[in-house]
Amino acid sequence: MWGTLAGKVALITGASSGIGAAAARVFTREGAAVVLASRRERELSDLVDELTGKGFEAAYAVTDVTRPADVDRAVSTAVQNFGRLDVAFNNAGLGAEQSPMHLMDDTVFDAIVDVNLRGVWNCTRREIAQMLSGGGGAIVNTSSVGGLVATPVAAPYVISKHAVVGLTRAAAAEYAAHGIRVNAIAPGTTRSEMIEAWFALRPGIEDLLHAATPQGRTAEPEEIAEAAAWLLSDRASFVTGVTLPVDGGYTLV
Predict the structure, then answer these.
(1) Which of 185, 211, 180, 210 is nearest to 195 (CA)?
(2) pLDDT for residue 2 is more than 70
(3) pLDDT tens across 66-100, in order?
């Protein structure tokens, strides 16, 4: 099969819905065999059935990215099913809790940072270890426009997503000489279960976000997945350590 990811084995976290599920469809269409990881087994199983029913190669591993043993199992699933791990999309994350910093419970900070930062840390380290044994690879981490600019009443989310940018740069600098590229994407407002629930709780917020976005709309998950696919592909072979905004121009203004 021809495609930007032809012949590659990819691990995708946060794969049961939204950007992660879109990535599973985009990556397989582009020729990759995929291992899908998230905490929701039913959704993973259904998506694997969908993909394999179309003739694509796919497997899943139920994974909580905050648990190193779970991440080890996800990486092992790629090796056991497809012989290696070439690329990884670390996309699992939690959304912003809307509250002023001085009123926010510490448990909210802990939960968001645990998934959005420690989860990416857990995944990146273990993926790199496997890629070193395989001669190289590529990783894309999901940050956010909240990792490039600050927004009010979402401090733990903003902190965690800024930290993903730093983690990405550190890993890129450390492993470039070993043939491993590490980049990040910074999505803007993207249609997903989480965003739809937020829109329902905050009537009018979607219109406000559209007004702040030069393209004037919400992204579809596939649009974000396409950017990740390019960064993971050999077409981006001289790109490492960057955080690519995929935001309809939001960070321009």
Answers:
(1) 210
(2) no
(3) 999 999 999 999 999 999 999 999 999 998 778 99
pLDDT in tens, 228-239: 999 999 999 999
Paired residues of 40 in beta bridges: none
Pick the CATH number of 9-252 from 3.30.565.60, 3.30.70.260, 3.40.50.720, 2.60.120.970: 3.40.50.720
Residue showing tokens 């694509």 = 56
What is the sign, positive or negative, of the torsion defined by CA atoms of 116, 122, 124, 127?
negative
Question: Which residues, listed in sequence order, are joined to residue 12 by a DSSP beta bridge?
Answer: 36, 89
User: Is the Cβ–Cβ distance between 187 and 18 less than 8 Å?
Assistant: no
Token representation of residue 207 = 């219109």
- Cα separation, 8 vs 231, whole angstroms: 13
Give me the amino acid identity at 146: G
Rounded-to-integer distance, Cα 43 and Cα 26, Å: 17
SS3 sequence of the chain: CCCCCCCCEEEEECCCCHHHHHHHHHHHHCCCEEEEEECCHHHHHHHHHHHHHCCCCEEEEECCCCCHHHHHHHHHHHHHHHCCCCEEEECCCCCCCCCCHHHCCHHHHHHHHHHHHHHHHHHHHHHHHHHHHHCCEEEEEECCHHHCCCCCCCHHHHHHHHHHHHHHHHHHHHHHHHCEEEEEEEECCECCHHHHHHHHHCCCHHHHHHHCCCCCCCECHHHHHHHHHHHHCHHHCCCCCCEEEECCCHHHC
**Residues identified as active-site:** 157
Q: What is the pLDDT of residue 98?
A: 84
Number of C-alpha atoms within 13 angstroms, CB side, residue 141?
A: 37
